[in-house]
Amino acid sequence: MVTLATVSKVAGVSTATVSRVLNQPHKVDRNTRQVVEKAIEKLGYRPNQYARGLASKTSKTIGVIVNRFSSTYYGFMLDGVEEALVEYGYKTLAESSRETAEGENQALLSLIDRQCDALVIHTNKLTDIELAQYQNKARPIVFMNRKVQACENESIYLDNKSAGQLAASYLLQKGHTSFAMVTGPKSYHESVSRTNGFISTLKEHAITIDKDCIIESDFTVQGGYDSLCRLLKQQKHFTAIFFHNDEMAAGAYKACREHGIAIPSQISILGFDDAVIASHLTPGLTTIEQPLAEIGRASGLLALSLLKNKPEIFQGSKLFTATVKERDSVKDINRE
Amino acid sequence: MVTLATVSKVAGVSTATVSRVLNQPHKVDRNTRQVVEKAIEKLGYRPNQYARGLASKTSKTIGVIVNRFSSTYYGFMLDGVEEALVEYGYKTLAESSRETAEGENQALLSLIDRQCDALVIHTNKLTDIELAQYQNKARPIVFMNRKVQACENESIYLDNKSAGQLAASYLLQKGHTSFAMVTGPKSYHESVSRTNGFISTLKEHAITIDKDCIIESDFTVQGGYDSLCRLLKQQKHFTAIFFHNDEMAAGAYKACREHGIAIPSQISILGFDDAVIASHLTPGLTTIEQPLAEIGRASGLLALSLLKNKPEIFQGSKLFTATVKERDSVKDINRE
DNA sequence: GTGATATATGTAAGCGCTTACATCAAGTTA
DNA sequence: TAACTTGATGTAAGCGCTTACATATATCAC
């Protein structure tokens, strides 16, 4: 095995010098540096990251937690984080929590055990209070797409209230005046904020939404399907439904097909996320787009900036805004 | 900071004993063990994985390489790998190659630097010869969904030739006799095998496929769209098209919509993968399903079994078979 | 009781690095 | 020229673990 010592012997210098050319090259004489670099090259030496980490107490690695890998929702954020870190020579250690509180805790501990210099985590199950306890100057934790009370400086997230308002404004602008909404679980802060935003804008226009027309669901296709069936059964009147994500909207498409309801002529549907499926649905799903990759990227950069204590690395805003991705699932009633 | 030494002092034993209760508890007396465990608990001690790795030359970590995270294709495999490893107390260190040869090389080296005990990699760019050079008894490398010559024992993959045959048989069974095919890049072994399988079965039925009706594309939605447009321009006759993945098939849906061609009445479409979008397309895309999560799981298990030299961990077959996931995009011509 | 065997624990030498500190040569100042 | 910088390099002490080996104690056959 080729170690620092091997290189130092071949190069005829001390191990300290070799270590210096690796970590603080400016402190080594040009000629010596070249000799060492040649030896490294020749031997194909690669530093042992564990020895490095043990000695320096830093791993050049940032741990990331997501619910699971098999959803592009997390995939886009992960790609964003990795992209940001690669630029700075940092590695991503990604772990999934498998959507359980226990998984989130375990992943958190395990990433800390692995000496991650910082953490970028997306969590749903742990409470703000539990999360705040993990915060620690030595090892910054960035909360990705979540606002954690008492850790707002380390939270990167979408302005979900504005996004809800945007959804309402958009539908109003298209002439709709009577609505339904299928939300995510109330335990998710996103759901609550989106709901509040949506309702508040309606209120501004003196429109109220029937309590029965707000259904709490679970972000799944099946959940969306079930919710739509329930809404139909109630026989309440509405011309547009706002779904808190595209999967649920896709479930609604299926239910509509089965009930012979045409989108958007009989019912308008507005999704959320701009997931991959949104463009493949027929008609194309109009949806509130959130910049997931950007959010991931920002989270990565924020982690680095906190870690290195260099504010210049992360300059932008911690709050992201959603936009409307217009396709064909919302009818413009004004044009009738 | 709480270290092994802290625990040993509190428990009144040597560090060796503490280390033993952590790694080989049966070698420690019941009473001593309890005392130590209590101390660990009380102090909230967590072993430093870097020190552990340095001393033991093992990291209990398996490195995984995928093209990127933002595709469920890789996501499902990743989830599969992680699921398998978690059972055995191993961690997943996932890195993306960003679909470049350089990225694949870098990721490979970087995971080795990080002392991964084994690697599970999905690569497209590196050649069999390059990959074989990385193989090494000390650190097994499993090739996920790829057959690498000279490393067949470490390759877990779909039987793409049979899958191609299955595609042909299915379409034949539905009464089709005239075909087109849109393949993935020829540089991908999957594309070649699927093509060969497809053609060979047709040949068995004395059917040939016009060279112009086989189009090489790139696995993207846009690629599928373009390919269909090209096929239509040629004015050749065919009733069914076999696409090498669902994204391309989705692109074809779009092209059909624009050209006013009805699926499946005017043209039948068969996809590959059973991606998430397949069920959301209208009509539902009939597709050749490959068990990605299973392939990931098997890869993880194989890596563990090679690593620990315990054949019993990985028992199954290294070759997976595709199945038909039937939806509504293939017309049954017999029923006319 | 003796020697052999098994079981439990401790001692201490690393694992491959980083880095504070020491050393030394060469240049600078008055 | 003596005293002081400065820059380049070396020495060696860890970082927090694991583990081969040594030691101590208990058990057992005879």
CATH architectural type of the largest domain in chain A: 3-Layer(aba) Sandwich
Strand order of the largest sheet of chain A: 2-1-3-4-5-11
The domain tally of chain A reads: 3
Q: Kindly state the mean pLDDT of chain A as a whole number?
A: 95
CATH superfamily of the largest domain in chain A: Response regulator
**Straight-line distance between termini of chain A:** 77 Å
Main beta sheet of chain A: strand number and arrangement?
6 strands, parallel
CATH topology name of the largest domain in chain A: Rossmann fold
Using the alpha-carbon principal axes, give the shape of chain A. elongated
Secondary-structure element string of chain A: HHHHEHEHEHEEHEHEHEHEEHEE
What is shown here, in short?
The structure is a homodimer of 336-residue chains. The first copy, chain A, has 336 residues and is of the alpha/beta class.
List the helices and strands and how they pair.
The structure is a homodimer of 336-residue chains.
Chain A: H1 4-11, H2 15-23, H3 30-43, H4 49-56, E1 61-66, H5 72-87, E2 91-96, H6 101-113, E3 118-121, H7 128-134, E4 141-144, E5 155-158, H8 160-173, E6 179-183, H9 189-204, E7 214-216, H10 221-234, E8 240-243, H11 246-259, E9 268-273, E10 286-289, H12 292-308, E11 319-320, E12 323-325
Helix pairs in contact in A: 1-2, 1-3, 5-12, 8-9, 10-11
Chain B binds a DNA duplex (30 and 30 nucleotides) through α2 and α4.
